[in-house]
Amino acid sequence: MGNDTELDVVVIGSGPGGYVAALRASQLGLRTAIVEKCDTFGGTCLNVGCIPSKALLESSHRFAEIKNAGRHGIVVGDVRLDLPAMMGRKDKIVGGLTVGVAALLKANQVTTFRGDGSLRPSHEVAVNADGRTVELLKARHIVLATGSAPASLTSLPFDHELIVDSADALSFEAVPEKLVVVGGGAVGLELASVWARLGADVTVVELMDQLLPGCDSQISRLLGRIVSKQGIRILTGSSVESCERANDRGQVKVKTSDNSTVELTADKVLVAAGRHPYTSGLGLEQLGVATGAKSGCVAVDQGFMTNIEGVYAIGDVIGGPMLAHKAEAEAIAAIDIVAGKPGQVNYDAIASVVYTWPEVAVVGKTEDQLGQAQTQYDAGVFHFRANGRALAADSSEGFVKILAEKGTDRVLGVHMIGPSVSELIAEAVEVMEFGGTAEDIARTVHAHPTLSEVVQEAALAVDNRSIHSVPKKG
Amino acid sequence: MKEEIKVPSVGESITTGVIVTWLKQNGDSVQDGDILFELETDKAVLEIPSTGSGTLEILIDEGTEVSIGQTVAMLGHGNAAAKPSAAAEPEAAACEDQESDSQVLSPAVRRIVAEHNLDPSAIAGTGKGGRITKEDALRAAEQQKTSAQAAEEAAPAAPAAPAPAQSPPPAPTPAPPAAAPSGVAPKGRTGGQRRSERAPMSRIRRRTAERLVQATQSSAYLTTFNEIDMHKVVDIRTHYKAQFEKEHGIKIGFMSFFVKACCQALKEFACVNTEIDGTDIIYKYFYDIGVAVSIEEGLIVPNIRGADKLHFAEIEAMIASLAQRARDKRLLPDELTGGTFTITNGGIFGSLLSTPIPAFPQTAILGMHTIKKRPVAIDDKIVIRPMMYVALTYDHRVIDGRDAVGFLARIKEFIEQPDKLLLEM
């Protein structure tokens, strides 16, 4: 029952932030325990986020692409969708990975506890299950890695039947005939893509003037055009005023950018308008752990420590870009700091990826941000349609844009939309981590024929030296 | 058994320095007295010798600030000690790289190094892990271009001590047109690019800049001018040149005349040989004359101690020795402190006229300039004479205009009538 021996580290939450923190702590020789309230490890990412969505995106992409098979000289007969099988594959992948995390934790001698973790005064974590405290853990260091949850809108409270969140949308039992997606960010667009490919009539309602707010505007515009061609209706500068239930369906009133009202029928309304940090039941208030007044994010200093000595927090729960790899990087930095080593995260070199097709991948500063900071820069752009590999792979829409500081030529931002840019962005991040320049990328030999040559040509274009472009006049 | 190598005391008020370059490698066998490293202080770069013999184990990297008395290396008397990790890195890369002992260079840096024939080991790296970035390489290329130009043409005059305070006037000749500061590129070279670079100030320059601002903010500097007919001194030089060199082993220049003239004039105008300390004026009755020397890192002013007691040959020898040792970075720290009056010569760079800044805490400075043949009126006739403008910048808080003008007039007198200098009249 109660643990007499004191632990060095207790991690609450086993998502990418939490389980990486636990594994790292164990690597450094610290006695570590992890508390998870769900039946499986892996948090949002593994169970109802990154992994299942990518599995469905892959499956739905193949389904949609089959109609292009004729281009390749492949004659396909009757094509049908077996949704349960598709979901089954996704579940299997998720199951495998969550079991994998459990195995890793065990192999690294991390003690695991199933239940809700909450903070008790003076370095204790209570594990609560079945309405009572089943364990009381003493720990020198506590790491909060409780992540985030989908944010609801006042006009659209979740009922998980008609008005659903992203987790629900990964497990629909049938393809909704009409789907309204509220929110044109990464999550909204990815799930819109999945169901549109599987046959749903999808409308995306986005509050801001562009999809993927904050993203390079050229990319947003191109993505909008492509996604529209894929059959998804986009309403930017629009918001949902109300949703009325009528016969299991919803009547959604949308105010559009020209101030008119559009009425949409929806079998499902997916609200993907952001996520809020998950802190309920942690006992933060009782302990006096400081959180952001508006955001609710746990406040931490540069060393990831909260205002309570020995209590740390990482990942989505402290805000910032809600990305799994950011959480993982913070996990390692925080544990290194706990172990007395230096630890930090380079937030300037964290990429964001959107898994629509074509994909979007960006890292560093946008042109808008550079303009606001009055930083002088040169931009180099190259399109995938001029790339042999992209043409051969039948996916050549998109471009790579590299922004380099004038004078030093240092790469400040790289923005991509195109096939597999989720992988191509890694080169850009690496170069930026080393303070590299566009010329460095340009002079590095990139294998041919690959999509990565687009990155090289964009780098050459920074200096107007792209080989495979028509020379600019003037 | 291991011996410690510590940073020795290098002069009054110096408590820290930066190890600029290790002149011996980790693992080298060194002898007592071998120069181990160069130490940059606020005033100069000094060579520090070993205090023993043995195998060198370097503990502190180049570019690190150290304190006087800090142990920076060990001398082993057995096998070479384990290398610090920084030394191990370049080793790994050396076998695959044709550059000497340097790190692996990025593609852009390789191109710049090749294009400009740079020495990568001489480029300061500001990138991750000390890597040389493209910016670093570009800067090095620019510096190389600038110093190459400065060597051929003449750099902007830098006669003031401790920092240049004048702008070169539009001299007709001999100074070549606007001796290139690094911002001015030859036409057509940059093709319209408006490039700029950022380079950290050297320690000496930073300290110079600080002192300069401090001095000018608290002082009331004015400059008075005069002109000197150099023909008599020129004649003396021409006449005795060969003989002087033969007898004393050193060429006779103009500086020795001016140093002597100054010593004499300072005796007559005690207020010009002073230092201000709070609300007190310290009058000095010894004559340590500073001679400004321009080196790569900036301007430094070594002093000729007791210049009034030295004769011409000794002064010339001292000046030559100080200048050479300044460039070789072998000045003793005491040679850079305690001067009472300074002479600076912008004339060697072609300056016709300027307003030097006194070397704090001195209260005055004499500026010599280029000698130019000009028509002058003597006894109502026009004759051509080799003329030099001289400038005396003085701190008006201590020195009145009358004394400043009088001092300068005396200098003029001594140079134009060297007999008076000889007879101390």
Give a quick set of tags describing it.
heterodimer; A: 474 residues; alpha/beta; FAD/NAD(P)-binding domain; Enolase-like, domain 1; seven-stranded mixed β-sheet; five-stranded parallel β-sheet; 14 helices; 25% strand; B: 425 residues; alpha+beta; OB fold (Dihydrolipoamide Acetyltransferase, E2P); Dihydrolipoamide Transferase; Chloramphenicol Acetyltransferase; 3 domains; six-stranded mixed β-sheet; four-stranded antiparallel β-sheet; 29% helix
Taken from the alpha-carbon principal axes, the silhouette of chain A is globular
Strand fraction of chain A: 25-35%
* Secondary structure tally, helices of chain B: 9
- Could you name the ranges of chain A where pLDDT drops below 50 across 5 or more consecutive residues? none
Number of domains of chain B: 3
Number of strands of chain B: 18
The major pleated sheet of chain B works out as: 6 strands, mixed
Intertermini distance of chain A: 78 Å
Largest sheet of chain A: 7 strands, mixed
Helix content range of chain B? 25-40%
- DSSP summary, beta strand count of chain A: 22
Describe this structure as you would to a colleague.
The complex is a heterodimer of chains A (474) and B (425). Chain A is 31% helix and 25% strand. Chain A is α/β, with parallel strands linked by helices and 474 residues long. Chain A folds into three domains: 7-150 and 276-345, FAD/NAD(P)-binding domain, CATH 3.50.50; 163-273, FAD/NAD(P)-binding domain, CATH 3.50.50; 349-462, Enolase-like, domain 1 (2-Layer Sandwich), CATH 3.30.390. In chain A, helix 1 packs parallel to helix 9. The model of chain A has no long low-confidence stretch (mean pLDDT 95). By secondary structure, chain B is an alpha+beta fold. Chain B folds into three domains: 2-85, RNA polymerase II/Efflux pump adaptor protein, barrel-sandwich hybrid domain (OB fold (Dihydrolipoamide Acetyltransferase, E2P), Beta Barrel); 105-201, E3-binding domain (Dihydrolipoamide Transferase, Irregular); 204-422, Chloramphenicol acetyltransferase-like domain (Chloramphenicol Acetyltransferase, 2-Layer Sandwich), CATH 3.30.559. Chain B is built from nine helices and 18 strands. Chain B has helices at 85-94, 107-116, 134-152, 203-218, 231-248, 255-268, 312-327, 401-416, 418-422; strands spanning 2-6, 16-22, 29-30, 35-40, 45-49, 54-58, 65-67, 71-76, 221-229, 274-277, 280-283, 289-291, 293-295, 298-300, 303-304, 341-345, 364-378, 381-395. In chain B, strands 9-18-17-16-12-15 form a six-stranded mixed β-sheet. Chain B has a four-stranded antiparallel β-sheet with strand order 1-8-6-3, with no helix packed on it. In chain B, strand 4 and strand 5 form a beta hairpin. In chain B, helix 2 packs parallel to helix 3 (134-152). The interface between A and B is medium-sized, with 15 and 16 residues.
